[in-house]
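Recall that a protein's primary structure is simply its ordered list of amino acids. Everything else, from secondary elements to tertiary packing, is in principle encoded there. The following example makes that idea concrete.
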Amino acid sequence: IGSDNRAGGRIAADHLIAAGRRRLAFLGDATAHYPEFEARFQGVRDALAAAGLPPPLQADAFTTEESGHAAAARLLAGGDRPDAIVAASDLIAIGAMRALAEQGLSVPADVAVTGFDDLPAAASSRPPLTTVAQDTQGAGQLLVDALLARIGGRQVAPPMLPVRLVVRQSCGARP
């Protein structure tokens, strides 16, 4: 049971593109080692391709603030600065916002940032983080239902749960 990670990457990127952002970066491991992150990256690529924009810049990051900070710092040191970052997780995004601030860049004026997961820290970050929310309560219920079905000898195809964008100030839009 999982969330539609590709759709999550797509809706975050679509939102940034609609807000006028044209040079997006993805922070997260975009390989099969992290299939959820890889799907989110593919969603960002899909949105950019549909808009006729170049593919995203990309820097590997894992699920910590420190990793997000380091990935954003590497990206900025490369000289090809994005005007928006889609981070594979909220913690990566929060670390990236810290790196941007250390470089004298303003979120969202200079670089818009989105995350993924809608952790409690997303709402309390400065600025509050726009993020893709997963239906964790629905996932829990489906998991129990699938377990009971398997105990009962029935096979259940794992569903793909929808995601939704939670708009806060880090993307430059008012919620």
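The chain has six helices and eight strands. Residues 35-50 form the longest helix (16 residues).
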